[in-house]
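[Solved] Which block belongs to which protein?

Original post:
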Amino acid sequence: MDETALVGTETTHALIVGAGPVGLMVAAELCHHGSTCRIIDRLPWPTGWAKAIGIQPRTLEMSVATAPTAWCVAAWV
């Protein structure tokens, strides 16, 4: 792979390592507050199944005010 293809001119405020539930929610929260982020994961594509089997009620309480949380809950229900 040509290494110059990976070099961009955009500025990223945060690097999220891991595209699981936590990484995706952190990225959504950062974007909600105006930051840009890049998500990297060791897998080259989604697995096709969920690894998380539930969300703790306190997690929902803390993040209920954000649009990404409302969207995720609507998609799951």
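(Second protein starts here: sequence line, then its structure tokens.)
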Amino acid sequence: MTPAEIKELAREIAREVVVEQRRQELAAYDTTLDFDQMAKVQRAKMRELKRAKGGQ
């Protein structure tokens, strides 16, 4: 391989690494949103149960 080919290959690998990192960050963010949404639903259910039992 010539130095130019090696340099181009290194650039391609770097691009792939960055793309994968971004994908993982977005996946982690989506999971966080899912957990937040589930927590909101759980809190709403608890409020409804308290209301149904005559609590505040």
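Accepted answer:
You had them paired correctly. Confirming on the second one: The two ends are 74 Å apart (CA to CA).
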